Structures are given as structure tokens and as C-alpha cells.
Amino acid sequence: MIQYDRAVSFAKPVLKMKFTVKNLASASRLKCVGIFGLFVVVGCKTPPMPANDTDQHIQSAASLATAIKFHTNALPVEATAGPNRLPLSSAVEQSLRQSPEIQIALAKVRTAQSAAKQSRLFPNPILNVVLRQPEGGRSTIIEAGLAAKLTELLQRPRRISAADAQLRAASANAVTTTLDVIHDTQQNYFKIVALRKEAAILTARSASLSKLLRVTEVRLAAGEGTQLDVTTLRAELATANLDRREANRKIKAAKYALAHRLGQPAGRIDWELVTPLYTQIALSIEGDAIKHGLLVRPEIQTDRWQLTALEDATALAKLTWLEGAAAGLNTERDANWSLGPAVTLPLPIFDNGQARREGARAQAIASRQRLTQTTRQVTVEIREAHHAVAELMTTTSHVRTRLLPLHEQRVTLARKVFEAGQEDVTRLRLAELDHLEAQLKHIQLQHQTTSAILRLDRATGGSTLEIENENN
After folding, report:
1. 350 within domain boundaries
2. How many other C-beta atoms lie within 10 A of the C-beta of residue 405?
3. 8 Å CB contact between 90 and 82
4. Which one of 27, 227, 234, 350 is most buried, counting C-beta atoms within 10 A?
5. Distances from the Cα of 444 to the Cαs of 217, 244, 451, in angstroms?
């Protein structure tokens, strides 16, 4: 009997073939042959499970002393507060160990691992028993069959390969998540460090403007100045106070972001951040940096393994027309026992699997294009970050070695002139203000250099950069 699906397309009719022999001796021989054939299929060598070394990869990428544990229970909403002194290494480690994103990624690895284990299991045999009572009171006819899903046996090697590729892709994706958490923590940490320095300079700038304003008001009262000078300084002082308030607001926002990363969204934010800004690194050649990044970036590895899995899926789609096929042994007792092979095959009249093959092929094509896109993106990220680091390190060095010494010399000369009684304090205050502006520019350039170095480190796959700090 042919049964049809309720969908628009018709289902494939199923052809069942059963061969029986009446001679028990022949049946025994046939049974042996059938069992031998099943053992040949079942005895196919199963490849070993890929090693689940995601924890070691994460530990290596983050330079941790011990691996991050996978928690079966949810992480606490508020983690235990650590010491007040917070170096960058401690902040990064705590962020990783309190990261729900990493725990989610590790759970996905275990999901893929269970799928890889499932792909190695053989399909359960299907036992079919039919009892028929003929008319006339004759003996009950017993028909029994033992079959295995033929398609799953034929597809088993490819299914194992696809599941293993998905497992490796999930592992690489967990490393990607780890690098993102590290990068975000580093950026928030150094943003606080830089903004604190900027706020200190802006506070000193407001104090210097206040002193200069008092001097100008005294000169106006003595008839030596103008109301325009007083109004101009008052406007500059108001602007400086606004800049200081905005810097304090940004500091609070960065502290809240870092506290969130540390797993303490409602915890303390008055840490002593002791790691200074990164301003110098041993910069490698751009071509070497690109080559290294393309080799180790986990995003590229993820796309490669996903492409492998989709290519296996394309190969599996070639046998979709055999879905429902089964092969085994069938026995029947009428007057005597009979035994023979039984085969169930779908007839590809309405559905020959063409649509599914085309869909699988299209997904594999899209995966290849995605791999190309990721490779290009990684290359551009490395080039942009490498250029930014080179330019910013040079600019910051020039400000430190050329611009700041000139302003310091100007302040020194203006102080000597003032102490000699040749000028009033106005020229000295203006020199001090310009010196503070140069210091503020230097801090901003240091922060930009640090951010560029962190971007380069992330773009090259979290490699260990040889970082030198001009403050050490």
C-alpha cells in the first residue's frame, strides 16, 4: 500500500522485498551470511572522539595559571569582592572566571560534544512481529523481522565527520568569546586610568584659570585691564568646569562597565588601578603580523570547521532519497519455518532528494564566501591597527620628548621674569595653562596609543605583545 504525506509534495512509495527459503539448512546458511554481512557493517572502524581541550586553549589564550571551570549552576549575580589593589592581570582573570558569555560558549561546546558522541552510536535494530490467524482454525501464522536502518549505516562516517567539525568550531568560538572578554576588560580598565589622569589635569586647569581670573579682576579694578578680558576668562573657566564634570561622568560610566565585567555590578568601584598605560611595543613587520593573525585567529578556524561540516552535509544529502531504507532478516512460520533477507527501499518517483542537495550545496557555498569575508576582515583589522600603533607611538614620543619640554621651558622662563619683577603674573599663568593643555594632549595620545595596541593584539589573535611602558 502506498501512503502519501499531507504536504503539497507526494511522499515516495516504499518497496518492500522479502525472500524466504523453506529449507531450514539453507535458511541457516542464509542466516549466517546475513549475520556476517551485518557484522561487516557494524564492525566498521569508528574514529576516536576529538579531544575536548577547549579549557586548555582558553587558558593558553588568556595566560592563566589554571583553567576556567565549566559551572553547571548559574554564576552568582554579585561575585565576591576582591582586594582594593587591582592590576590588569587580576582584572582580566576575574572577568574571565565571572563571565556568563564564556560559560555559555563552554555549554555549547558540550552540546556539540554530545552530538559527536551520538553520531558514533549505531542505529537501534528494528524488530517487527506479526501474528495472523487464518480461517479454518489452522495454526497461527507468525512473521518476524529484524532490520537496521540502511541509510544511517551508510551515512555514519560522514555524520561523524560533520559532528566532529561542529565540535571543533564550537571550541574555536569559545576561544573567540574569551578574547572578546579580555579585550573589553582591558579597554575599560585603561579608559579609567586615562580619564583619571585627564580629570586631574582638568582640575588643575580650572584652578589655574581661577587664579588668572582673580588677577584679571584686580587689574580691571586698578584700571589696567578690560571687561572683555574678565568675561573671556570667566567663559573659559565655565567651559573648563564643564569639561571636568564630563570627565568625571565618563569615569563613573567606565567604572560601572568594569564592575560589570568583574561580576560585581553593584559592588565597589574605588579600585586602585596600578597598571599604567601601554605606550610602546616591539612592533613587528606588517606582513608578519598578518601572517600570524591569519594563522591563529579563532574566527577563521571557526569558519573553516563550519565549512567542513557543511561539505559533509552536502555529501550526506546525496543519500536523502534512501531515507527509510532498511535491510535485515525476516522469518515466517506457516506450516514450517522459513527465513530470508528483507529489504525496504523507497522509490524515488516524487522526491529524489534534488531539492535538499541543492540547499546543502548553497549553504556550503555561503560558508566558503563567509570564510573569505572573515579572512579579508582580519587582514584589514591588522593593517589598520598596525598603522595606528606605528603612527601613535611616534606622535606620543614626539609630544613627550619635544612638545612638553618646550612648554616646561616656557613656564620656567615666565617664572623667572615674574620673580625678577619685569612682568606681572599674567604671562606665567598663561604659560602654565598652555603647559596643562599640552599635558592633556599627551594623556589623550597615550590613551589612543594604548587602545590601538590592544586592537592590534586582538586583531592578531591575542598574541603576547612585547609591551614597554615609558613610565617604567
Report:
1. yes
2. 11
3. yes
4. 27
5. 33, 14, 11
